[in-house]
Design a protein that fits this description.
147 residues; single chain; mainly alpha; 79% helix
Length: 147
Amino acid sequence: MTTAVANFHWKCKHTWKRSAHNTKWCLIGCAIGDMGTILFFQMTGIPWPTLAIMSLAIINGLLTSIALETIILMRQQFNFQQAIKTALGMSFISMISMEVAMNITDVLLTGGAMLTWWVVPIMLFVGFITPWPYNYWRLKKFNIACH
């Protein structure tokens, strides 16, 4: 067993706090594109299949999350190429798990592609909780974060 593996633990409050902050920014980016897409279809009544709307919502959520994280990194003195590479490479698994969790929650609670006043907080909670342990693990084990 290597020293890094032997020293890993889930009890560091500082790491939980920092990983929560990183997860929050990822959630904001994902939610903008995801919920914005669902809301667009809900308001316009364009007759797309639910699966198509949810798939587009996931794609848009990933794109807006990458864009937001790229902007945040550029404000931290990364050049554009470094920022986008970091945003893509360091948090993509987190973003995908977040997006899938939020959309599964929407489908299970509303039938899909339907935002209501009560489902949004649940979607956001599930979207936050799902990747948070992964983000903690990456931060603790590798000291890798996107912000």
